[in-house]
Design a protein that fits this description.
heterodimer; A: Rossmann fold; 3 domains; 19 helices; globular; B: about 160 residues; alpha+beta; Arc Repressor Mutant, subunit A; Glutaredoxin; 2 domains; 4-stranded mixed β-sheet
Chain lengths: ~425, ~160
Amino acid sequence: MHILLRAREIPDIHKYDVYVKNGGYKAFETALKMKPEEVIDVVKASNLRGRGGAGFPAGVKWSFIPKNEPVKYVAVNADESETGTFKDREIMETNPHQLIEGALICAWAIQATAVYIYLRGEFWDVAHELDKHIAEAYKAGYIGENIQGTGWTCNVYTHLGAGAYICGEESALLNSLEGKLGQPRVRPPFPAQKGGGLYGEATVVNNVETLTNVPWIINNGADEFKKIGTENSAGTKIFCVSGHVQKPGNYELPMGITLRELLYDYAGGPPEGRSFKGILPSGGSGPVIRVNDTTLDAPLSYEGMEKIGTILGSASIIVMDETVDMAWAASKIIKFFTHESCGKCAPCREGTYWLDKVLDRIMAGQGSLDDIKLIENVAKNMQGTTLCALGDFAANPVIHTVKQFPEDFAKHARQPENGKSNKPAAKQKATAGG
Amino acid sequence: MSIHDEKYAERIAAQFAKYPTKRSVVMPLLYIAQEEYGWISPEAIQEVAELCDMDSTQVKSIAGFYTMYSEKPKGKHWLQVCTDLPCALRGADEFYEELKAYLEVEDGGTSRDGLFTVEHVMCLAACDKAPMLQCNFHFMENLDMDKMKTFIEEKRAEAKKQEE
């Protein structure tokens, strides 16, 4: 059953006519007949949680928006930059009107004056197609002035980023939209509060997948939505499966399905003759897990992933088989975060730089066992010390990979000679520092 | 050369109509400037700054912050190859090495014929279709070197034809 990837069942649903023929914009019309706060109540009751990674209840977020402000915004987070994530792109390419409809329902619920869809710059083609779809909805009277005779006016625009992971962080996204450097803001005030949102106005920032669920919830009711998934993780989720599986791709399935079912029944299992070794269930930013019966049988839900020491996040599931050196994988992810650290907070900017340098030394066979302790120490000092979560995320690949796969790091370390310290020679230290 | 050219007037006006502040138009204008100059040249910075009511230093900092604005001239075809973990698990590192060798360039370099600039970039949200790259912001997916050689030689032949 697909709530989001409906193109798998209805070809051409990206086209306005096909979308409308299949019930499109009916939910928006229903919502317009409801009071805005009633719409918020339905979304609240559905337990729809934010699909961008944090899992914050969407309806609760909407209810934070002050009622009497004249200008309010919806910012749609289509920055999709987490390593291993490629779901929002498929939604926007194959079911764009449902996203537009969901964003409009949100806009009505908070009485927003405009919707900005912030797409990562690399979604250049996607954004230009989306502009055409927005124009169709505009022409049909679902966007613009006095929408469906309600007297309410709301416009929808796309905005292209230009290549910066950090702009997926909500306050950095808002700064980027305002033409400032895409760096996170100090909070409070939060985006939903006056003074904290776009141009200082109260703003709901929601992920593409989150909003695309909303029309279905309005059409079918909160109770029907809650019947899908688990008690704390209602609905379906798009799992982006990449890496060492036979059939990588997006799979929209009810939350609570196990990793084993996803990876074997849907993604076709590991490459011929090999077995799974490690999995990153939340892209580069979440803790890695070692594959065994316990982890394979863990349900893919917010609470299920927490139980095995990791997070569901945006459900970008990177799968690695027995041929992968996990120290190499960690160093790849660290290179990503070193490049993507925005430079605002010293622990993240400096921490990622040094993790990268020392990991390079370890991978080159020049590191000592003390270097493994050193990277753990650096990583731990990054956590909880930065304005946004990037610093915490960047520490995860080191802290958890060392913990789960210590042997993969130890094999690269130079062994101490008998009776001598295994600290790197002074000369090597200087090289690594330079 | 200028973004004040009439051919951009409509697009620029449409961008200003989208936002309540002039400053928000800086990113869309930098894209238009890059289209005009081929890169974010000092003239481009100046023109964008004037239109957005910003200091040129501020515009330069925006251009430097994002990877899709090029601060130096580049080849006609800008190939940005993803070598991040999910792509690397499907052979992107080897693909990138072969691509550089075929074009006889280093990371970030431009081929001698001036047609191709090659660099590695971070995740492009196409992990299930690796190896992949973006060429002048359009995605090319499920690649191998045979496909790339055909593409490169086609573009070379096109350029040669244009010269004649």
